[in-house]
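Supplementary Note 3. Input sequence used for the single-chain structure prediction.
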Amino acid sequence: MTTTVAPLSGTFDIGGDLRVNRLGFGAMRITGPGVWGEPRDHKESIAVLRRAVELGINLIDTADSYGPHVSERLIAEALYPYPSGLLIATKAGFQRSGPDLWTEDGRPDHLRSACEGSLERLKLKRIDLFQLHRIDRKVPMKDQIGALLELQREGKIKHIGLSEVTVKQIKDVQRLTPVATVQNRYNLVDRRSEDVLRYCTENGIGFIPWYPLATGNLAREGSPLAKAAAKLDATPAQVALAWLLKKSPGMLPIPGTSSVRHLEENAAAAKLELDNSTMRELEE
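The predicted structure, written as C-alpha cells, is reproduced below.
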C-alpha cells in the first residue's frame, strides 16, 4: 500500500486554518475492553499509531475518558515528538467508573482539570481541537462553554468542537463562540444526524462521524453494500468509509482499530471513488 494513502481522501481546514487529510484515526479502540484500562497488546497499539502516521493520517481523535487517560498516554509514547502537521484532537466531559460506564460531567472545574491533564499526558503546550464530549444537562451550557473559552484565552486550546449535539445546540453555542467541528454518530445504518451534517456542511464546520463502520446486515450477500464492494474489489467497510467521504466535503471519518491490518484496510478506502448511482443504491 502507498504509505501516504490518506491524502487521497482530500483535505479540510478545521477552524479555517488547520488543514488535515479527511480520513483520520479514532484512538478509542487502542485501550482495553470496554474502553477501560491498558490494551491487550501494548506493542500492537503502539504500532497502529505509528502506522497511521506513515499512511498519511494527520488527524487523530482521542479523549481523556478513553482508558481513562490510556489512549492519550499511548499516543504520546508512540508519536512524541510529533511530526509536523499532526493534529491530535481530544475531548472532555465524562467521568469513568468502570468498563463501558460513562457519566456526563460538564462542571467547569472538571473540564479545566481534564484539559490540563490532557496537555500533560499528550506532552502538548496547546490542544488545537478540544471537544466537549457531551453537553451536560445538569450544568448550564453557558458555564460549560465559558470554561472552554477561558482555557482558550489562556492559550491552552485553539479551536472548540462539540459532540452529540442537535442543530439547535450548535446554534446556541455559536452565539458564544465559533464551533470548529461536530462529532455525532453517523454511518450507513444510522443517519439520524442528517440535519446536523447538512448544517455543518453549509457552515464550514467539520463533521466527525463516530462509529462510522456499523455495516452489520447491510453487508449480507446480495445487498447493495456487498454488490458495491464486489464491483470495486473492496471490502464492505471500505465502501462504507468511501460513502462517508462522498457525502460531504467536510466529512472527517475516524475509523478506529487496535490492529495494523485493519488500519491499513480502512485507510485504503481513501482510494475508492463512488459514482452517483452507487451512492443512491447504498442509501436505498
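The chain has one domain: 6-283. The first strand starts at residue 11 and ends at 14.
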